[in-house]
Every structure is written in structure tokens, then in C-alpha cells.
Amino acid sequence: RILQVWGSAAGPNCIVLSPLTIPGGTRQSPINIQWRDSVYDPFLKPLKISYDPTTCLHIWNNGYSFLVEFDDSADRSIIVGGPLENQYRLKQFHFHWGAINEWGSEHTVDSKFYPAELHLVHWNAVVYPTFEEAVMEGNGLAVIGVFLKLGAHHEGLQTLVDALPAVKHKDTVIEFDVFDPSCLIPSCPDYWTYAGSLTTPPLTESVTWIIKKKPIEVDENQLEAFRMLLFTSDGEEEKRMVDNFRPLQPLMNRTVRSSFQ
Ligand SMILES: NS(=O)(=O)c1ccc(NC(=O)CN2C(=O)C=CC2=O)cc1
Ligand SMILES: [Zn+2]
After folding, report:
1. What is the pTM (predicted TM-score) of this model?
2. What residues does 149 pair with on adjacent strands?
């Protein structure tokens, strides 16, 4: 519901300083990435991604988005390098999208929205004992953001799309036991990175964002499949799950670094 308010408030032409920015927040997400203001950092390493597809557990409609959750009880699906000082474990991935193709992403590039955005959520299990503790710490989380643009059919995404009707309603879950999310990440190594926050409650300022420069292409039917999900539980008046993105937040005293010139 909260996200619906955000989403409806955050039309394409209005930057809403959401009252839901945590008071005193200095590193809130999402933000607009102004390409020409980003600073090339030659010391940024390539991001190393190694996921074990058998760590995939299930797909869950949590009433905000649909999440694909992973077994993070060991270092089997991890990322390391890039701007990160430790390796981080994959916990879940999810998406944000619009009611129409004109908007839907959380981050924008030069004020351009994409129709959807993928977030792969990782936590610093080297330093923190649990995900819940990492969520509260400045270097606790690392989220890879990948933009989705309208284009060719995405084979890898389709296996996920085929399972969505089974999680149409809030609080429904379906077993999903083999999936390699690296098929959703562009091979181009270029990314932007900045210090930010979760974009849904608890909005904690614990995320190192790694936003891939290149989008992946998905087709109209695949975006429409996202839009047939519901915010509402079975038996409630149906509310389509669309516009589940947070309004842009002020950059404040932050620099966005790029891994490319
Ligand atoms: N949109 S985002 O910034 O990537 C964003 C990322 C993550 C969360 N929250 C969580 O992961 C909460 N959570 C737990 O604590 C355990 C499973 C789970 O989903 C909220 C927002
Ligand atoms: Zn997200």
C-alpha cells in the first residue's frame, strides 16, 4: 500500500521528496544517475559473480513485489570485487515495474526511467552473523541493479514468468529449486556505484548500490506478466501490482562513481 502511494505519486515528471524518506536520511535510494556527473574510479575492480543455481529456494509474493529467495546458509552464491571490501552472499532478488512502459524503474539515468528494474540483494556474511543484522549496518548489503528495457524475448526470464501465475496473490509461494540469476545480468562489466539505502521499509542506509550500465531486453508479454500480479491477498478486492517503485531521493553529499570511462 505504502509503495502504491509512492508509486502513484512518482509520475514520470515529478520528483517527489517523499515524506517517507527517513528523517535525517543522508544516503537514501533510489537516485537519478547523471552520467556526466559520475566520476570514473580506476581503482574499482571488476565485479566477480558466482552463483550456484541449486541454492534457489522459492518464489514469494510479499505484497510489494515477487521475490526469488536463496539458501544463504553458506558461501555458495556470492559476489566479490567491484567496490566491495568483503564477499557478499545472495539472499533474494526481486523487481520493480510500472503500469506502463514509460516508467517503472527505481533509479533513472539522466532522468530516464526504464520500464522495470531488477535488484539482486546480497549481505556481508563475513562481518555480520545474520542478514537481519547486516540490514542495519552501513556496509551490510550490496544490491546489484539491472535495468529492463522493452525489446527481445528473454529466455532466462521466461522460466520465472511461467511461474508467476502461481504467486498471483500476496503471501503465496511456489517452490523454485533451480535458477541461475546470472542469466539476468548483462555481460558488459560496466557499472555505477554509490552509497545508498533500501528503497522499501526499513529504508536503512546499509546498501552499496552497483547499478549495471547496460540494460537487459525483455518483451511486452514478459512485462505484462509482472503487471498481472496482485498487491492483494486471495479474496480481497483485486489491486494490480504495478508502480511498486519509490520516488527519487535527493543525492545530498554523494558522488556516483563509474567503473568505466
Ligand atoms: N528494493 S531494495 O532496496 O533492493 C530492498 C532489498 C531488501 C529489502 N528487504 C529485505 O530483504 C527484507 N528481507 C529480510 O529481512 C529477509 C528476507 C527479506 O526479503 C527491502 C528493499
Ligand atoms: Zn528493490
Report:
1. 0.92
2. 217
